[in-house]
Known about the structure:
Layout: H1 9-37, H2 59-97, E1 120-123, E2 131-132, H3 141-145, E3 152-156, E4 159-160, H4 168-175, E5 182-188, E6 191-197
Antiparallel strand pairs: 1-6, 2-3, 3-4, 3-5, 5-6
Helix pairs in contact: 1-2
Protein name: 26S proteasome non-ATPase regulatory subunit 9
Keywords: Chaperone, Proteasome
InterPro entries: Nas2_N (IPR040815), PDZ (IPR001478), PDZ_sf (IPR036034), PSMD9 (IPR035269)
Amino acid sequence: MVGINMNGPSRERVMKLIEEKDRIEREIQEQSAILLTNNVGMHDSLVDSDGYPRNDIDVYKVRHARHQIICLQNDHKAIMKRIEEGLFEVHSEFRGSSNTGTSQQATSAPYTNGHAMNNVSRPVTEDRCFAIVGFVHDGSPADLAGLLQNDKILQFGSINHSNFSDVTQVHQIVSHSVGQRIEVRVKRDQNVISLTVVPRP
């Protein structure tokens, strides 16, 4: 995940929400492991052909795990919405406190596990960035793609300084590009670096 390059109460709330999201995801994985151990999925039958509970699985544990997964998935959906709203709030606060003459604005590109490809460095031809990488979570999409803290984002897919207006533009590109490459250009020191992020669920 690429983070907001600012401090404040809104950012702290978002960070706590992200920690809670990570906890929920770990619990989903733990409950899914129970299903995997029993060689069943979310919809496999728990009774045999005669209508009796299957004796090759732990029916109680499987039913409990399925129930927990459904509840956790609902919690995950809700907290992702709160995180998106929080990021929008942080972004709005940052823009409101920025000097009108600056072209650098904070944004985020959350939860897109990706890979870096065609990492090419070349001299800077322009420095019109619209976002700054505030923090990079270890093992996150940004980390895997090669983004570093304080990188200045010049282009994220079709978004650049001239058409950027709202952080939700980034969210939309990410959500509509799962499994597809997103070209990203950043200014790092005196060079422009091209990266490719491949979002996945």
